[in-house]
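Reopening this ticket.

The earlier resolution said the output was attached, but the attachment link was broken on my side. Pasting everything inline this time so it's all in one place.
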Amino acid sequence: MNVLVTGTAGFIGYSLARKLLERGDTVIGVDVVNDYYDVSLKEARLAHLRELGKDRFRFHRIDFADYPALTAALADETFERIVHLGAQAGVRYSIENPHAYLHSNLAGHLNLLEVGRHRGVEHMVYASSSSVYGGNTRMPFSVEDRVDQPISLYAATKKADELMSETYAHLYRLPLTGLRFFTVYGPWGRPDMMMWIFTKKIMAGEPIPVFNHGDMYRDFTYIDDIIAGVIACLDNPPPDDGAVKAGGSTKPHRLYNIGNHKSEHLMKVVGILEEEIGRKATVEMLPMQPGDVRQSYADIDAISSDLGYKPTTSIDVGVPNFIRWYKEYHGA
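Inline output:
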């Protein structure tokens, strides 16, 4: 199968592309490789994909929010399915630089929908986010919950992506699956996320910033479990049968949570980091940050029932795996 994957220089995009190449698929990668975080990490991911995939990995260094550039780059490419993972990430950064989210997450998503529509693809899987649940307090978060009260612009753009996708499923019968990811971590992860930040600071003997005075819970989901869910979705397009799908659509459009189905206390993760690094953390307790939420917890009944998805990696296994990779990557 030929699969177009956006965000291939990113954490989840790279991890998916690697798994698709390992099973024999051809991957057409798209990424602008911006400097939101360390470009050398992104280049290292791409180098690994080129080495692994050889002629089954073709990469286009373009901005998918630039529609003429995107369509020109893809003119001679053949692909049956799309996984659109590229986006401007980060809740806090969306407060500092809102226009980046308008560009990448709204215009970019529309462009991929247009590519899917005009190329007649069999299925497009796209990244949403657990952030769409906003200030919801009923746990665990279900895809049947209302998500019309976002508390960050990032969350608002992801909800908008879901709405645009519903429209395209209705108008053009384009099969679509939106995935609400919950706190993804693991080897080759992102330097702007908690796991990396805490590891770096603890190893350097610097204080770690702990928001809401430590009263934080997250559904930490290991990258291998995320990718297993993405591939299960990719291989199973939603039928256009008029039946109600996960998320409530009667069109060929589904929404799934992909999480570990465990809401872990942040300080438990800090404890595992301390044990694996062999150093006690200096903790700086801080108030809640704007746009942040106290707790996330994924109800995964829909994807488990439909596709047999079952996460297998606990934080007791996943966090040490990340630390081992981090040390190896940095030569520590």
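Reporter confirms the inline version is readable. The chain has a mean pLDDT of 94. Residues 98-119 form the longest helix (22 residues).
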